[in-house]
Amino acid sequence: MIGAMNQASVITRFAPSPTGYLHLGHAFSALFAQHQVWTAGGRFLLRLEDIDTVRCRPEFAAAILDDLAWLGLHWDGPVRTQSEHLDDYRSALDHLQGRGLLYPCFCTRKEIAAEIARSGHAPHGPDGVLYPGTCRGLDPGERQHRLDSGQPYALRLDMREAVAQAGPLMWRDLDAGVQIARPEIFGDVVLARKDTPTSYHLAVVWDDALQGITLVTRGNDLFEASHVHRLLQALLALPVPDYRHHALLTDAEGRRYAKRDKALTIASLRQSGHTPIQVQALAGFIPLAT
């Protein structure tokens, strides 16, 4: 596994998904991440999280690099593109499988909804209704039959067993302080699918460790996800970074910026004549040096 990382300087990153053009919220996140390096010294890395093969497109990836450079951001070293490193994530899955922590789930969304309705019990987590564990105790013979028949499946983490193996865990947010990890609030999360050997949760913790990230900066909508990430770090024997979660940028009506808001993309602002300094200001940052 990956060894301990050097804590002598801050290493952070900006890791967008190329599923659309960058908007002001992305600009804020990127500037926020680079600002941590400027104030503490260290390195700022860029990663493209493109494991969503349906929505991610090469033209969006190219536009991300162009927009960030235009904004005045400078990243260290080569850009890591997740789709080029799928074998890394397979290795992590194999490790978890070897510990007896994964099981195939053949349930469709419709079947999950039906099971929840039947039980009359629908506990919720940060991502919505928790998976009811239908396939966790599936008969081994039935499980193998379904695998052999080519039935689509997702690989889920057996959360109860994972928490039992990992024991009590903590992680630190530089603003909110030390947090007791509560990954069980997510239930049996999906870590991979039959045709995609990873998920956001698995890929992000692996890449952060591989790239030596010491400070993870991201929006506070991902604060709770850090509980699951801390668990995966423990199970995979990965180093533990610090975290800093920032407020989400919103419009005048309090709505989060989204990629569907085409008028607020960096590309559209560039086309309308805005300068990099003006866009930095719109994103809520003191303009970077020209």
Helices and strands, with pairings:
Layout (H helix, E strand, L loop, with lengths): L9 E5 L9 H17 L1 E7 L9 H14 L8 E2 L4 H13 L3 E4 L3 H11 L4 E2 L2 E2 L10 H9 L5 E4 L1 H8 L3 E4 L3 E4 L9 E4 L6 H11 L4 E5 L5 H11 L6 E5 L19 H6 L4 H7 L8
Parallel strand pairs: 1-2, 2-3, 11-12
Antiparallel strand pairs: 4-7, 5-6, 7-10, 8-9
Helix pairs in contact: 7-8
Describe the structure.
Its EC number is 6.1.1.17. This is Glutamyl-tRNA synthetase. Keywords: Aminoacyl-tRNA synthetase, ATP-binding, Ligase, Metal-binding, Nucleotide-binding, Protein biosynthesis, Zinc. A hairpin with a 2-residue loop joins strand 5 (124-125) and strand 6 (128-129). The chain has 10 helices and 12 strands. Mean pLDDT is 91; it is low at 1-7. It has a 3-stranded parallel β-sheet. A 3-stranded antiparallel β-sheet has the order 4-7-10. The termini are far apart. It is an alpha/beta fold. Helix 7 crosses helix 8.
List descriptors:
single chain, 290 residues, alpha/beta, 3-stranded parallel sheet, 3-stranded antiparallel sheet, 10 helices, globular, aminoacyl-trna synthetase
The first-to-last residue Cα distance is: 42 Å
Total helices: the number is 10
Order of helices and strands: EHEHEHEHEEHEHEEEHEHEHH
DSSP E strands, number: 12
Largest sheet: 3 strands, parallel
C-alpha-based Rg, rounded: 20 Å
What fraction, in percent, of the residue positions are helical? 25-40%
Oligomeric nature of the chains: single chain
Low-confidence stretches: 1-7
Q: What integer is the average pLDDT?
A: 91
**SS-derived structural category:** alpha/beta
In the sheet with the most strands, the strands line up as 1-2-3
